[in-house]
From TrEMBL:
Pfam short name (any one): MaoC_dehydratas
PANTHER family tied to this protein: HYDROXYACYL-THIOESTER DEHYDRATASE TYPE 2, MITOCHONDRIAL, HYDROXYACYL-THIOESTER DEHYDRATASE TYPE 2, MITOCHONDRIAL-RELATED
Name this protein carries in UniProt: MaoC-like domain-containing protein
CDD domains linked: R_hydratase (cd03449)
GO biological process: fatty acid biosynthetic process
Taxonomy, superkingdom: Bacteria
Residue ranges annotated for the MaoC-like domain, each copy included: 24-119
GO MF: (3R)-hydroxyacyl-[acyl-carrier-protein] dehydratase activity
Organism encoding this protein: Candidatus Magasanikbacteria bacterium RIFCSPHIGHO2_02_FULL_51_14
Amino acid sequence: MASFWKIDMNYEDIQVGAVYTFLRAIAKQDVLDFASLTGDVNKLHIDAEFGERSIFKKNIVHGMLAGSLFSTLVGVHCPGENGVYLSQTLQFRRPIFYRDTLEVRGTVLSKHDSIRIITLKTEILRDKEVLISGEARVRVTK
């Protein structure tokens, strides 16, 4: 299991414009484990010959596997254990491949003081290219 630098932020600690990031490499075993866990055994993700014949010319990572890294962003980096994930939008812009190293980024767009909710611009990048984008809404409990 990976170790992370865990941050537990209070609502007052969070500033609009602040950016939180971490890196994560996606291994073939991650994809196989995700396929086993979810039952999504689409050959595009797990069969090398099928992947070679696809429009991508190789296997791609499940979009939802990559998107699930936003849970780490919220649960570990901003705000950490004081956060309750309320919603997440996702736009899949480019494919992700085995062995890609991804930058997971969250930028605080807004704070709603009366209800203690923050909105984050969420992005997954490879070499500065946005692969997945969206917005997360998170309630900060402290």
